[in-house]
Structure formats: structure tokens, C-alpha cells
Amino acid sequence: MSDVHVAVLAAGKGTRMKSARPKVLHRVGGLPMIDYVLAAASTLAPRRLVVVIGHEAAAVRQALASRPGLSFVVQEPQLGTAHALLAAESAFEGASGTLLLLSGDVPLLSPDTLRQLVDRHRSADAAATVLTTVVDQPYGYGRVVRTGRQITRIVEERDADPTEKAIREINAGIYAFALDGLFDALRSVASGNAQRERYLPDLVAIYRREGRGVETVTETNPDSVRGINSRVELADASRILRARKNAELMANGVTLEDPATAYIGASVQIGCDTIVHPGVTIAGRTVIGESCEIHSGVFIADSRIGNGVVVHDHSHIVESAIEDGAAVGPFARLRPKTELRTGARIGNFVEVKGSVVGAGSKALHLAYLGDTTVGERVNIGAGTITCNYDGERKHTTVIEDGAFIGTDSQLVAPVTIGKGAYVGTGTTVRTDVPPGALAVSAGKQRNIEDWVARKKGRR
Predict the structure, then answer these.
(1) pLDDT digits (tens, 9 = 90+) for 23-80
(2) What Å distances lie between residue 195 and 6, 11, 148, 432, CA to CA?
(3) Is there a contact between 69 and 49 (Cβ–Cβ < 8 Å)?
(4) Which helix (H) or strand (E) covers residue 36, if one does?
(5) Contact 29/20 with Cβ under 8 angstroms?
(6) Tag placement on the chain: N or C end, fewer CB within 10 Å?
(7) Would you please indicate which residues are annotated as catalytic (active-site) residues?
(8) DSSP 3-state assignment of 225?
(9) Mean pLDDT of the chain
(10) How many Cα atoms sit within 13 Å of 103 on the Cβ side?
(11) Contacts from 256-264 at CB under 8 Å and sequence distance 24+?
């Protein structure tokens, strides 16, 4: 589709969302809804991909800054959809072929639907091709008025008479236009309607009067062209996307014990024979290998997890990497830049941040490892803390292979615990411990006889 260009309308405020955030940045299935629209458009490899922004333009531009190949135009003020497309005229200067016009609030849109629309538009050599669908409750949508089978015009809800309001075929707000003459036609769109705006659907009647061809493609699944205008519709779209994703995963060999409570993002990958228990959220660009088990209440985002990993209940994992056979939790937290090597074990109420835990090493309860490199086969006792922050700067701790860190120890960074060294229970380590040495800092225990009785006698 080498002559296809795309414009995405994303300038509206979305007043029914009742939000300071631009409507197109509200998240559906963990991603801003406009991301889905841009992803669908990108499958056509368009020559130009232009986003029309207006309300909170800077926020939308910033949110999409990492996407390659986008350009932006600003619609100011916002005077309707025809005015929005006209604002993009300079972005398509010198372009020819087909302009595909999309709305940034239609996240369920299928790439196959877009291809069908463009193919029909080309084969009919039309000036405009409108995507329509049939719904049971058309209230609020523009109605498609036909003479016989031919579309003659589109009438908006506020301008429709009772007969037109009874029509169930609606305008999906998605079009293919021939670029030749398009912007001249847009300048002829008037604002004599209830909203005093320049409606893009008015082009249908204009083109019909001029004898130019107008075609339609009817989408059989209304959900795929559903626009998002309220929080209720946002939740419905998220539910549909989750169901699609969950069905795809299960078809590929993943067990979801309760799909209704599995919140799995569109970009997540999960290997076969992995079991996901109820109430799990897996988000971002997370990749989980084969034969893993993700227990209830777990949250995972933007992480890579190998094969045969077990994540126990209510653990929280973000921007971390976990190798084969490792185990996490329950109630563990892995913060960004954490790496667990093969067979490592992080247990209940252990927090790890910016650290590497070597193969076969374990911290099974009530510990904090921050900015730490842990070697292989290391035992971290309960209550151990690596004290990585001195109030001004972060410092690193190194625990070499085979070391044993006793319960309730504090390792004050920067410090190194040598290979095979022992740190006695309750020790505060302030200097390096040589390989094979034992570090202790507690004084000799002293018992004071009859202390309790004397204390009570003073009351």
C-alpha cells in the first residue's frame, strides 16, 4: 500500500470522560488507547502518519515522542472534524493516493478492517469510502442515510429527524479519501448544524452532489469500531481486549485458571504450559517462558522471566530479569534493574533493588538487597539489610560466592564480603570481610541477675 497516508484525529477534549487527561491517553488494557490505533495504522506501512492534536497538545506529543515516523499538526481552536483534517493540509502537501482517516479513540480497530476499507476504496476508484456498522442502540452516532443501497448522506444525532434516528446503521468515523481535491472539498463544509461545527461526514453529501463516487464498507463486529467517550466505555473496551488476549494465550498453550481475573497486557508474551492463577496482572513488554507458575495476586511489568520459574502469591516485579528455575515470594518485591540468576530464590517479605543475585543463592525472608552483587550459592539470613544510602549517595555491596550472611546483619556499603566468608548473626559490617573469614561485631553477652525483680520493685 505504497500510496497510503494516514491522519489520526486526537485533538478533542473528551468532556464525558470528566478528566484533565487527554481522552486518547486514557489507558485501555494498560496502554493509551491511541497506541492501538497507531499500531493498526502502522501495519499498512503508510508513507506519512500524521496526528492532529489540540487539547493538551503538549501532553499528547510527549506521550507519543518515542514512536518513530510520526508528525504532528495542531488544530486550534477545535471546530469540528472537517476543520481538524483541514488543519493537516500542509502535512500532506504534494502527496497523492489515499488518505486513511482514523480517530484516536477507537482502540479495538483491526488492521484487517483497515485493509478491507482501503482495498474497497481503490477497487471502486471512489472519492470517499466510509466505514459503517449496524448497532442495536444507535443513540449518539451519525446515521447512514441511503437511497436504495447507495449512501447519500450522514446525519448527526442532534440534526436527525425521528425517521433518521430509527436507522441502526451508523458512521464509524473512519474513512478512506482520494487526496485529489480533498482539501478543496473540506473548505466547502459549512457549520450550519446544532453544534456550529464543520462535520467531516458532510463530505458525503457534497461528493454525491458533485457526482463523485462514495462507497461504504460495513464492519460486521460493532465492537471493533467502538469509540471511547466515557469511563464506562473505557472499561468495556478493556474487558474486550483482555478477553481477546486471554483467548489467544490459551489457544497457544497457557493455562489461565480464571480468565475473568487475568489482566494481561496486549504486548505480553507467555510460553506454553505456564499456569496463571486468579487475580494476576502482567503488563508492559513482559516475556514469561514455558512451564512457569504465577500465583494469585502477583503483579509483573516490563520484565523477562525464564522457564520453570515460580512466582508465589502477592509478589511485585517491575523491570527485572529472572532466569530459569528461580523462585520469588510470596510477598516479595523486585524493583527495577534486579536480576535473579538460575535457581536463585527470593522469599517472603524480601525486597531487591538494582541487584544481581547469583545462581543458587537465596534470601528467603525479611531482607533488603539494594545495589548489591550477590555471587553464587550465597545464603542471606533473615533480617539482613544492605545499607546502600548514606543520605547523599548510593553505594554498592559485593557478596562473593559461597558466603553466609547471618540473621539480622547490616552490611554498610561500600563493602565486600569475600568468597566463602561468614557474617555472624547481628553483625554490622563496616569494612571488607576477607575470603573465608568470620565477621562479628556484637560484644560478649552479659546477664544481670535479678534485674527483673528489682525493676518491678521500683514501681
Answers:
(1) 999 999 888 999 999 999 999 999 999 999 999 999 999 999 999 899 999 998 888 8
(2) 26, 17, 29, 75
(3) yes
(4) helix 33-42
(5) no
(6) C
(7) 365
(8) helix
(9) 94
(10) 24
(11) 263/30
Say if strands 385-387 and 410-412 run parallel, antiparallel, or are unpaired: parallel
Q: Has residue 212 got a pLDDT over 90?
A: yes
- Residue ranges of the alpha helices (H) in 190-320? 202-209, 231-251
The domains found in the chain, sorted by start residue, are: 4-225 (3.90.550.10), 343-459 (2.160.10.10)
C-alpha cell at 228: 471511547
pLDDT mean over 88-96: 93
Contacts of 39 (CB under 8 A, 6+ apart): none
**pLDDT tens string 400-437:** 999 999 999 999 999 999 999 999 999 999 999 999 99
Strand partners, 53: 10, 74
CB-count burial class (<10 Å; 0-12, 13-18, 19+) for 69 = exposed
- DSSP code string of 62-105: HHTTTSTTEEEEE-SS---HHHHHHHTGGGGTT--SEEEEEETT
430 alpha carbon, distance to own chain's centre: 43
Q: Which cell numbers in the block locate residue 413? A: 556499603
How far is residue 131's CA from residue 46's CA, in Å, rounded to a whole number? 19
Q: Count the Cβ atoms, other than its own, within 10 Å of residue 149.
A: 6
Cβ neighbours, 10 Å, residue 422: 19
